[in-house]
Design goal:
Length: 492
């Protein structure tokens, strides 16, 4: 069973690549409504994709990786010893196998973000000094793009032995990460933050039953899971449990979430982005386009101004324990969460399930899922060609072996066994990982878009989107133009 699930995951990760180049007459439709060519299924049905690297001997080299730790995702690339945790043990075995294969050792320097701060000055100083102390440096997306603009990072295309067309690399996400067709960053199966930071909508199964609501899984499969249906069920679930006539923590609520996470989760689910890229791979502001305005107004109408969302005492606290306790105690129908923090619900006695965020309406063909954050590996510009060649072999092997062993452990055991409570949620997990979307306005330029303006607009229930965007349009465009000019000048 585990092998089947692992193979299936590799198949759906590969599907966008094969669907774009395969024979469309030989295709099936997945749960998201997208075509999957039989070629993809055939390639992965017989076994995992191999890395085709050949033989290398790195003479006992110590491969140094700098990483940060944070309580909202699993960022570690190495584990020193087996400890009985299935995910940790799979990482340990993966790394020891690769070390033996190529005669080298991993060394990870993993520091807590609470101690080092968000500037990542320590590894940055080593690059500025011209010292190749770290073979790769894993940092957050906005910082990675800042480093690229400062000329501190090599292009991924400088890695001669990686094949980004292989299914263990995240092709769709990697297309989102480019600017001006320059690929300075890539994500593969070893990047667990790309899974951890996938946004999901949890729901209280017992409450759905008690309220006599429709089968939510069936609604998703039938394409009827929409903003309107979500809002309807939120209002049905609300109840003044203590009878004081006020909406408080002691009552039952429709939807609970950190306020700054609501807007991007819903606008992406509604099929739009705040920052698009044109036919030349140049980013541009999309938050003033009619399609975005339509989705924005729907979010304000269905989620904010009809009180579907409960504003907690501290609405912007990340991983707010107040919200966790509300959901665990059965006093919320829907709970916005990511895959890493779902683990906080392992001791929840009430049954819960996993859904995608709803579509704008039934006319929208596909569901879309927000990837709100991810780490990216940086290749220090201090690395020479020999170092890059060695790094490329190791990263290719890491991606390949992660797809074989680590992702099945993460996906099958950590998610489907420990956290989710039914077989139907397994299909939802497949859907969520297969429809991830990366929006620069939610990540790299979140200081202008998500955190800079949209959080406040949402909390106020404001429909004043256009005038707000007009105030920042010129400043944001200068930032976009600056990054584009630099990336266009950068070499491949």
């Amino acid at each position: 069973m585990k092998k089947f699930i692992a193979l299936y995951l590799i198949a759906i990760m590969a599907a966008p690549l094969y669907a774009s180049c395969g024979d469309k007459d030989k295709s099936a439709v997945n749960i998201a409504g997208e075509e999957i060519s039989e070629t993809a299924a055939e390639e992965t049905a017989d076994g995992f994709a191999e890395d085709d690297l050949g033989e290398y001997d790195f003479g006992g080299y110590e491969f140094s990786m700098w990483s940060c730790m944070m309580d909202v995702f699993y960022g570690n690339l190495d584990v020193e010893e087996e400890n009985g945790d299935v995910l940790d043990d799979s990482i340990y075995r993966r790394n020891r196998s690769i070390e033996e294969r190529f005669n080298f050792t991993f060394k990870e320097i993993a520091l807590d973000i609470g101690e080092i701060g968000w500037s990542f000055e320590t590894p940055k100083k080593t690059i500025l000094a011209g010292d190749n102390v770290y073979d790769i440096i894993n940092i957050f997306g906005p910082n990675a793009y800042a480093w690229a603009q400062e000329g501190l990072v090599h292009s991924v295309k400088r890695l001669p032995h990686i094949d980004l067309d292989k299914p263990y690399w995240h092709q769709d996400l990697n297309k989102d990460l480019t600017i001006a067709n320059k690929m300075y960053f890539a994500s593969g199966a070893f990047n667990l933050t790309a899974y951890d930071c996938t946004e999901a909508l949890l729901f209280n199964k017992d409450l759905v039953r008690d309220l006599g609501l429709d089968d939510l899984y069936a609604l998703v499969h039938e394409g009827k899971w929409t903003f309107a249906k979500f809002a309807e069920y939120c209002l049905t679930a609300r109840a003044d449990l203590d009878g004081d006539g006020k909406t408080t923590l002691d009552d039952r609520h429709g939807f609970i979430s950190t306020s700054r996470m609501v807007m991007p989760s819903f606008w992406i689910a509604g099929g739009v982005k705040s920052i698009y890229k044109d036919e030349n791979d140049i980013p541009y502001l999309g938050a003033m386009e009619p399609s975005f305005v339509e989705v924005y107004d729907a979010i304000i109408s269905y989620v904010r101004n009809n009180d579907a969302w409960f504003k907690a005492p501290n609405p912007n606290v990340q991983n707010d324990p107040v919200l966790v306790n509300l959901f665990k105690s059965g006093r919320a129908l829907f709970f916005d969460n990511n895959f890493y923090t779902i683990k906080d619900l392992r001791d929840m006695e009430i049954n819960f399930g996993i859904l995608p965020f709803p579509k704008l309406n039934e006319d929208q063909k596909n569901y879309y899922t927000r990837l709100y954050w991810t780490e990216l590996f940086c290749l220090p510009v201090s690395a020479d060609e020999a170092a890059l060649a060695r790094t490329s072999v190791i990263l290719e092997a890491l991606a390949c072996e992660s797809a074989k062993y680590v992702i099945p452990a993460y996906y099958d055991v950590s998610l489907k066994t420990k956290m989710t409570r039914d077989v139907e949620s397994e299909a939802m997990v497949d859907l969520l990982f297969h429809t991830r979307v990366f929006d620069f306005g939610d990540t790299v330029w979140n200081g202008y878009i998500r955190d800079g303006n949209f959080t406040a607009l949402f909390e106020k229930g404001s429909t004043d989107l256009i005038s707000t965007m007009q105030k920042i349009q010129n400043t944001l465009q200068k930032e976009i133009d600056k990054m584009v000019d630099i990336f266009e000048a950068l070499g491949d």
